[in-house]
Amino acid sequence: MYPLSIVEDSADYLVVYKPRGIHSAPLSKSDGDSALSRIVTSYPEVGNVQGKNPVEGGLIHRIDKETEGLLLCAKNQDFYDYMDVCQKKSVFFKEYIAVCDYIPRYSELMVGFPPCSEGALFEREENGFLNIPVSKPMILKSFFRPYGPGRKAVRPVTSGSGKYAEMKKGDVLYITECIPVMDDSLQSMKTAKSHAKISDVAHKDDEAISSHFDTAIFKARIYRGYRHQVRCHLAWVGYPVRGDVLYNPIALAKTDNTGKIYDEGETAIGTGHINQDSDKVYVESGDFEMLFYAVALEFPLRDGSLKRIDLSSRVLQKLSCSL
C-alpha cells in the first residue's frame, strides 16, 4: 500500500488525489485497501470523525473505483458537520472531465434508458442526431433508480419512463451541467475516430448503428450527486465515457458477467445491459481504461470565502499528451 498524493492539507480538511482501481472507502469493516485506509495511515484524525457511515470516517464524498481524482476529507467533526450542511444546501460543487465516445441512438441499444426529451439535448442535425463536434452546453435532469444484476448500474427516470421505473425512483431530481471542452490542444482529439466498432446491431427501425464513433470531451458539474450520475447522464444522451464497462457498449463488449476480458475480434454477449435483440458486439481495438476524472471541488469556507481546488488544466494536459 502506498500513500496517496496530497493536494491540500489544512487544519480542517485534507484533499487527496485518488488513483483509479481502488475504492474511496471500504465497503465493509473487513475490506482491505481503499483511499480512506491509506489516508488514515498518515492522518488518523480523519478516521476518528463520525460520518454517516461508520466505515467512511471523515470522507465527505466518494468517487467511483475506476475514477481517478479529488477526494475531500474532514480532519475534525466540526468541519464534517459544516460540510454536511453545505451539501444539503447544494453549495458544494464537484467537477469532472470525461472523454466520451459518440454513439447515436444509444437508448435504443442499451436497455432501461428512457427516451431523451428535446429539452435535454443541446444541438440537433436534421436527422435528429446530436451534432459532432459539440459546441454548446447542456443541462441534463432526471431522477434515478438502481438497475441490473446486483443493482450495480443505475438508470435515469423521467416522465418518459415506464410505471415500474417510476415506482423504483428516488424523490430527488439530479442535475448535471455538461460543457464541451474546446481547448485548442485537444481539437485533433475531437475529430479523431475512436477506432472501435460495433457490428450486427439492429435497432427498432432496422437501421444499423454507425460503425465508427467520434470523440467528445466534456467538463461536467454537479452539486448533489447520485451514484454514477455523470457517467449515466452522459451515456443517456449518446456520450458514454470511454472505457466505462457499465454504460459504454464498446467497453461492455470486453467483458461478460463472468468477468472474462475479450480479445480483439472475439464476440461478447451482453449481460442484460445491451438490447437482447442486438447483443452481438465485436471488439476491434481501443483503450478500455475508463477516462473519467474528478478534477475540481468548490465550497464555501466557514469564514465566508469560497474555496476552489482545480486540477482541470493538469488533467487536460495529460490527455493531450496521451490520447
Automatic annotation (TrEMBL):
Pfam families to which the protein is assigned, alphabetical: PseudoU_synth_2
Q: What GO MF terms are annotated? A: catalytic activity, acting on RNA; pseudouridine synthase activity; RNA binding
Record GO biological process = enzyme-directed rRNA pseudouridine synthesis
In this protein, which residues make up the domain named Pseudouridine synthase RsuA/RluA-like?
12-235
Q: Which residues form a coiled coil?
A: none
The Swiss-Prot or TrEMBL record describes its family as follows: Belongs to the pseudouridine synthase RluA family.
PANTHER family the record matches:
MITOCHONDRIAL RNA PSEUDOURIDINE SYNTHASE, RNA PSEUDOURIDYLATE SYNTHASE DOMAIN-CONTAINING PROTEIN 1
- The name under which this protein is listed is Pseudouridine synthase RsuA/RluA-like domain-containing protein
Species of the source: Candidatus Treponema excrementipullorum
Q: What is the lineage of its organism?
A: Bacteria, Pseudomonadati, Spirochaetota, Spirochaetia, Spirochaetales
